[in-house]
Amino acid sequence: MKRDGVSHDVSICPCTNPLILIMGISLLPVARSLFPFNGLGEVVTAPGIIFGDNDNVIPDVVWASNERLPLLLDEAGHLTGAPELAVEVLSAGSENEKRDRELKLKLYSSRGVREYWIVDWRKQQVEVYRREQASLKLVATLFNGDELSSPILPDFSCAMSTTGYAYAQLFN
Description:
It is built from 4 helices and 12 strands. It is α+β, with helices and mostly antiparallel strands.
C-alpha cells in the first residue's frame, strides 16, 4: 500500500495496478545508467519523504546529489528535505492524478525540488517541470522520439521510447 499525506489531506492509494510498480522500476535502469556516471548522486525508488507532520510523500523515483543527500537525512536515515529530482508515474483515477499534478507539484515547488517529472504511461508522455523564479514551471512535454535532458545532470540525455510504455498494454 502506498500512502501519501499531503497538506493535511491523507490520500491512501493501494497500488493495485502492477503497472505503476513496473513503470517506476522501468525508470530505474535509465536513471541508474545516467546518475552514477560520475558518482554525482544517488537514485532511490519509492522513498518516503517527511517534509513535516502533514506533508509526507512517496515519489516513485528521486535523485539527490552527493552534496545534498547528507543534508536531507535525519539521524534515522529518513529523507526530510527536497531531492533535486522527483519522478512520479501517474496512477489511474482522477484523485490520484490530481494529487500528482496539483498537490505534489505545489508541495515539491514550495519545498525546493529543482526538477519534477510526471510520467503519463497512458498518454506515453513525460512532463518536465523545472524551478524558475522560486517555483516549478512546466518547461517541456516529451513524447516518443524526443530527448530528455536535465540541466542538473551534466551530460545526461535519454531518448524517449515506447519501451517503458509497452508495459501498459499488458494491463489494459
